[in-house]
Amino acid sequence: MGARLNAETSAARLVGRLSRAVGRGGGTTLPGKLLWKVDPGALDALAARLPAGVAVVSATNGKTTTSAMLARILGRRYRLAWNNSGANLASGVASTLLSATDADLGLLEVDEFALPEVMRRVNPRVVSLGNLFRDQLDRYGELEHIAERWRVAVGALPPASTLVVNADDPLVADLANGRSGALRFGVDDPRLARPALQHAADSKYCVRCGQPYDYAVAYVGHLGDYRCPSCGHSRPPLDIAARAIDLQALDASVFDLVTPAGTVRVRLPLPGLYNVYNALAAASSALALDASLDEIAAGLGTFTAAFGRFERIDAGDRRILMLLIKNPAGANEAIRTLEEGGVPETLVIALNDRIADGRDVSWIWDVDFEPLLERVGKIVASGERAAELALRFTYAGFPRDRLEVIPELREALDRGLALVPAGGELGVLPTYTAMLELRKIAVARGLVRPYWEEVS
Amino acid sequence: MKITVAHLYPDYLNIYADRGNIAVFARRAVLRGHTLEVTPVEPGDSLEPWAFDLLYVGGGQDREQALIAPDLAARGDDLRRAVDAGTALLAVCGGYQLLGRGYRGRDGSWMQGAGLFPLETIAGERRLIGDVLVEADLGEGFTTMVAGFENHAGRTLLDPGATAFGSVLAGHGNDGSSGFEGCRVGAAIGTYLHGPLLPRNPELADWLLSRALEHGGGDGDLEPLGDELERLAHAVSSGRAKARGGK
Q1: What residues contact residue A241 under an 8 Å CB cut-off, 6+ apart?
Q2: What one-character DSSP code corresponds to residue B189?
Q3: What residues of chain A, 54 to 93, have a C-beta less than 8 Å from chain B?
Q4: B149 touches chain A (CB under 8 A)
Q5: Torsions phi, psi of A56, nearest 5?
Q6: What's the rounded Cα separation, in Å, for the pair B240 and B247?
Q7: DSSP of A147-198
Q8: Sequence ranges of chain A with CATH classification 3.90.190.20
Q9: Which of B12, B15, B125, B201 to mutate to test the interface with A (most CBs of A within 10 A)?
Q10: B202 contacts in A (CB within 8 Å)?
Q11: Residue B201: helix, strand or coil by DSSP?
């Protein structure tokens, strides 16, 4: 009892200190984790002191990139309280708001599961919902459950808040049904259609009546132009669209950004149609925050990828091209990017199964690795579950003698680099914690700067 | 020989990488000079399951499972007839539940199953999630250690006298308390284990392939493969389960 009482009083003292810090807005780096634990209500107060309000970004895939794009667009107009370290749970949000004492605008990337709680507390000016894909079922549960939680959160959103949704994702688009002032974005360029829905496509059945959708066009996973042949539920009209898209291999994606405020040609220096979706989410949110089209085009045009998502690293006389893979939809897009830009002769593919990666590794069987396996020369399978990856590849028919299994990441990276001739490029596809570890190795060798020095 | 497989509802039930299990059947058959012919069966399709050597039913999300449940339930008699005649079957997670008598939801609702396995499933409060290690007993003295991953809210209760697929060495299994995992009727296996199940459990894959070959009139003998990577993956996965402990 004595110890517990002691702990409570010291916690209370700490809360007092924290609350004082909140009240007077003095600089503090005290962790929001504890604040969140002992007084979740402090988050409301922290958000309320931001004069330009709070923008919230969530999605299964692309929330880090979308919020980074938004930061690039809005960075001149506002001083940002932005959780760019990737700490996207309520505690991370609290830390960010606690430490950014002179900010005007909160820019929060929020985990899908934490979103309802954060939305309820920060009274957001804008909420951007990008997509829902199957991801880490052991942690998040099923898509429908996340969507249901989001639906409740959106229902409680004040009328003054602007809701931004991806119209191309049936489950997400439906959340804005009947909400006035909502902004719906999507891709409108049938030339970029996938020939068929991917194996891992999720929301294939009508959200209203359960019949399979007819897809006029499928762009990324189940994102596209859908219509239910039975009840007629279909993609809503787009308020913000990407048209005349020109994907320039690994260099850039150029497109017409069509908005109610006019049309502007954007040159986004990132590959992949999924990044066009991220740019649409960022542009829509920026419009809702009064940014001009010129600001949006300039911000997107000077954007650099969030670390590890798509990164080229010089390693002496060789180069490393790193693309994060974390779930079937994301991995399929990383693979599509490599297909379009040229598949490197040697790949290191790394699978970890820590909590941030998902402890259930079955998702690798939902990824369409086959286009890579047809083109790559040699694969080094790495990470704590390297053998599972190796099975994925050999059961797809990849020859055993062109596959090496090296669980230790440093060793796998060195082996991969040794297999690449001077002047060549090694492709590296890691899951989240493997990416962090590989990046740490690159930092220790002086190849890249740590991410906290790179941002903003 | 040609091994014929009916894959039930691949468009609806595919949440835990079920195509991995099919890929394992196909490759392990081809490496022994056999071929695997897979026929997808969607709701409303006509199906004579006894005409197939092997049936496969995967797992889905709640919504997809509810969409196919009436169709599956209506095939109950046909499926029993097929299994009685020696057709092999593997059902994983949702497919396993729906091949029982039915599923009682948290709200008291009842989803009718096919009644092939002598069991019922009741929704629990907490999902049972994590790595599992099971000692599977496939009859005639053949046991094999099976490593997989479970993620289910249902608590599955076997009828008295029913044969479990195996006993739980680590993890939750059917209900988190009985120590049983899955159910077996002849050469029909239902289990919660995915991962997918078969890549790292080649002995189980071969047992099912042998039963399928026998159904097709063959002797069911399969020459051994090296399975070096399979053993490696099995070791890591069962290590995860053991670290997790008894329950």
Answers
A1: A185, A186, A187, A188, A257, A258, A280
A2: E
A3: none
A4: yes
A5: -120, 135
A6: 13
A7: HHHHHHHHHTS-TTSEEEEETTSHHHHGGGTT-TT-EEEEE--GGG--SS--
A8: 310-446
A9: B15
A10: none
A11: coil
Query: ipTM value of the model?
Result: 0.96
The length of chain A is: 456
- Record the tokens describing residue B126, joined without a space: 């907490």
Q: Is the pTM of this model over 0.90?
A: no
Chain A partners within 8 Å of B233 (Cβ): 385, 387-388, 390-391
Beta-strand pair B143-158/B110-112 = unpaired
The tens digit of pLDDT for each residue in A352-411 reads 999 889 999 999 999 999 999 999 999 999 999 999 999 999 999 999 999 999 999 999
CA distance A146 to A135: 11
| Alpha carbon distance A65, A221 (integer Å) | 18
The answer to whether B202 and B227 have CB atoms below 8 angstroms apart is yes
Residue pair A216/A190 in contact by the 8 Å Cβ criterion: yes
Helices A386-395 and B228-244 meet at what angle, rounded to 10? 140
Q: What pLDDT digit, counting tens, does each position of A109-164 carry?
A: 999 999 999 999 999 999 999 999 887 666 666 788 889 999 999 999 999 999 99
Find the Cα–Cα–Cα–Cα dihedral A405, A407, A409, A411, rounded to 10°.
-60
Residues A442 and A426: their CA atoms lie apart, in Å, by 14
- The CA distance from A255 to A385, in Å, is 39
- Token representation of residue A303: 């954007």
Output DSSP code: residue B166.
E
E strand spans, A269-366 = 310-315, 318-323, 346-350
Distance from CA of A70 to the nearest CA of B (A): 33
Which two three-digit tokens encode residue B50? 């006894």
- How many residues are given for chain B? 247
The two three-digit tokens of residue A141, written as one number: 């549960």
- Please give the Cα distance from A203 to A114 (Å, whole number): 22
Burial class (CB in 10 A: 0-12, 13-18, 19+), A123: middle
Topology classification of domain A29-301: UDP-N-acetylmuramoyl-L-alanine:D-glutamate ligase (3.40.1190)
Mapped onto helix, strand or coil, the DSSP state of residue A234 is: strand
- Regarding the domain with residue range B2-244, which homologous superfamily does it belong to in the CATH classification? Class I glutamine amidotransferase (GATase) domain (3.40.50.880)
A404 interfaces chain B, CB cutoff of 8 Å: no
Q: Which residues make up the CATH 3.40.1190.10 domain(s) of chain A?
A: 29-301
Report whether the peptide linkage leading into residue B196 is cis, meaning its omega lies within 30 degrees of zero: yes
Closest by Cα among A327, A335, A345, A334 to A308: A334
Domain A310-446 classification at class level = alpha beta
Residue B192 near residue B93 (C-beta atoms within 8 A): yes
- pLDDT of A212-244, one tens digit each? 899 999 999 899 999 999 999 999 999 999 999
Mapped onto helix, strand or coil, the DSSP state of residue B123 is: strand
The CA-based dihedral angle spanning residues A63, B11, A229, A273, taken in that order and rounded to the nearest 10 degrees: 30
